[in-house]
Every structure is written in structure tokens, then in C-alpha cells.
Amino acid sequence: MTEKTYWAGKRAIVTAGAAGIGLSIAEALHKEGVKVWICDVAADKLAEAKAKLPGIGAVVCDVADPAAVDSFVAEAVAGMGGLDFLINNAGIAGPAAPVEEISTEDWLRTMAINVNGQFFVARAAVPHLKKNGEGVIVCMASVAGKYAFPLRSPYASSKAAVISFARGLSVELGPHKIRVNAIAPGVVSGDRIQRVFTDRAKTRGITYEEMEALALKAVSLKTMVDPEEIAELVKFLCAPTGRAITGQVLSICGGLEYTE
Ligand code: NAD
């Protein structure tokens, strides 16, 4: 089977697919001829993504809203005629603050999107993957879920939950030939990291440049990861190259051994 033959006719859902890492994943799959449906909370970014990637489905949906998720997944599966890949990508950075200063609202919102959202989307999508007879789920975690991550306790806790969710699902869904893995990116280039560094620098009373240097200090290769590199890893997992990989956490982080 050639590469192109494998991808032709495959169908993917990518959450938070209108920008950042999700858009890069949608773009990489679309380029192979995969049918792709994305959701996002930002209607303007969805319209831009739809213009950039002709033929994709783009729906406004907050992954923290179970009714909206059920309706998005149903619409996507009907529109594509089934489902092969679920890329459970949506997640927010949450607050950067000492634990005693984190509001209940910020904690709950981070969990609602990063943890509940993973569950709502997987719950809606799994019956369709089972019906397909095989499938792949990729849960977007973070190295923050693997190591101590000071001043970002909501985010780090939520990403540890994502890792645990993926591991559990991999065992549950293995008999259905559905592979489930988590990807743990490190410091990823793009708009989001600028927002995160600005917040974290403010919390620490240091400059943006000092925060960037501090974050890269722990990275062996002293480099950020590009969203396109994460998209290639997603493709590797979805393709036959990933046939024997399930229940794993694949870090893509330039060698990040701890976080500052
Ligand atoms: P981003 O902040 O660039 O946002 C991408 C998209 O998510 C945006 O279009 C936004 O509108 C959408 N979005 C936000 N809340 C949503 C919701 N409730 N429902 C649906 N869509 C929503 O994000 P990113 O940097 O591309 O991150 C994608 C994933 O990768 C997240 O799970 C994130 O935690 C993880 N991650 C990112 C980094 C990084 O440095 N950027 C590092 C590790 C892990």
C-alpha cells in the first residue's frame, strides 16, 4: 500500500483546529487527502481555516459543553460518513499564579476545557470508531503533566489527567483495535507561548526575555518545537507506522527534563 492509498478516504476530527497546533494537524492531514472536521470556539478563526483548507468541516463548539460536543461529533461523522481518527487537541493554558491566588473559577475553567473536554469528545466519538472497526485517538497532553510545573498547578494537573485518561482508554479500547496515545509537547513556537511567557514573566517579576531564557534553560536542545513537527508525530501515530503503539506518552520537547 502506498502512503497516498492509506490516507485516501480516511476521516478525522480535530478539536481546537482553527489555530495553533490543531490547525497544523488539520492542515497536515488535509494535505494527505484525509477528510477533516474541526471545531473551535473562535468563529472568525474557523472561517479563516475553512478558506485555507477547502472542503473541511468547521463548527463552532466549546469542548467544555457536552451538548455542543455531541452535536458537533454527530454532524462531523454524518458529514464525513464515519470516523477513523480523533485528535483530542483542545486545551487552554490556565492561570499562572501561586496556588493561594488561583480563583475557583480559573481552576474549574481549566479543568472544564482540558479534562472534561477530552472526556466529552472521546465519549461522543468512540462509538463511531468502534463501528469503524479500528481507529486512532491522540490526546494532547503536555510535558507539564509529567514533571513539577511551578505556578501552573491547574494546567499541570489537567495534563496529568489527560495522560491518565489516554492510558486507561488504550487498555479499554485495544480489543476494538483503537489505539490511544498522548502527545506531550514542550515549549511550542507560536502565539500561545507568547501569551504564556508574558503571564509567567509578570507573575515572577522578570522580563519576557528572561522568562524565555528560563524556560529554554531546561531544554537540552535549546529550541522550541514547531507545531508542524507535532502534526508529523500525529500523522506517524495515525499511519501504519503507529500500528504497534498504544497507551504511550510521546514527548516532543527538545529534551525537557524539568520545568522552570
Ligand atoms: P492555542 O492557545 O493556540 O489555541 C488553539 C485554539 O484553541 C484556538 O483557536 C482557540 O480558539 C481554541 N480553543 C480554546 N478554547 C477552546 C474550547 N473550549 N473549545 C474549542 N476550542 C477552543 O493552543 P495551542 O498552543 O495550539 O495548544 C493546543 C494543545 O496543545 C492544547 O491542548 C495545549 O495545552 C497543548 N500544548 C501546547 C503547548 C504550547 O506551547 N503551545 C505546549 C504543550 C501542550
TrEMBL record:
Keywords: Oxidoreductase. InterPro entries: NAD(P)-bd_dom_sf (IPR036291), Sc_DH/Rdtase_CS (IPR020904), SDR_fam (IPR002347). The keyword Oxidoreductase applies. GO terms for molecular function: oxidoreductase activity. Coiled coil: none annotated. It comes from the Bacteria. Pfam families: adh_short_C2 (PF13561). The keyword Phosphoprotein does not apply. Belongs to the short-chain dehydrogenases/reductases (SDR) family. This is SDR family oxidoreductase. It comes from Phreatobacter aquaticus.
